[in-house]
Amino acid sequence: MLKRNSIRVERLREKLGKANAVRTKVLDEMKFIRSWAQNPLRTGAVSPSGSDLATKMASYLTPRPHSRVVELGPGTGVVTKALIDRGFTHKHLNLIEYSEEFCELLSLRYPGLPIQQGDAYTLTETLRKPKGFLTGETQVKHTLDGIVSSLPLLTRSEPVRRALLDEAFHLLKPGAPFIQFSYGLVAPIKPDNRAVSVYSSEWVWKNLPPARVWVYRKGH
């Protein structure tokens, strides 16, 4: 009898867990839709990235004791969770989010993670703000081990996109990746420097809409 009741309780817990996960997903999508309706050029997408796409993005990074990884445009934190599942902690991560609402949500969902409300397109300046990786540092060149971006890059002009990539490479260590997803057939940023390599993943068909991950690297 006790064993049967224990099984029932466990099944109920599983159902409640699934129900909470569905509820969270729906609420996140509602937040995205509201944010997109208020400023479509800032938000870009009408729903968060799927977990499979987020896992793919995180897979190009390996946590090490002193890793410093910046996430741009974390939104509701889907990629953030994938990075944490990958082994990164609050000591390794620095999140930059433009939306005040998403910043508040991220603070509740991931207490202890350094989250800055700011503009990712002024990357160095934003990272110099309190709690940023570059706060109080005089030497900022080649100090980051990776940048993971969910920014809606194609809402910006090509010169602005290239300027972001150039600034990212100024901060990244040689060979460290700038990781970006896109729904398009071509690279979201076309580098004008032969020293920059670009790799694209296979399509992540489970994402809606299907997307690919683009990984940019630059040597010395």
Automatic annotation (TrEMBL):
GO terms assigned for molecular function: methyltransferase activity
CDD domains: AdoMet_MTases
Keyword list, A-Z: Methyltransferase, RNA-binding, S-adenosyl-L-methionine, Transferase
InterPro entries found in the cross-reference section: KsgA/Erm, SAM-dependent_MTases_sf
GO terms under biological process: methylation
Superkingdom of the organism of origin: Bacteria
Pfam family, one: RrnaAD
Protein's name in the database: 16S ribosomal RNA methyltransferase KsgA/Dim1 family protein
Source organism: Roseibium album
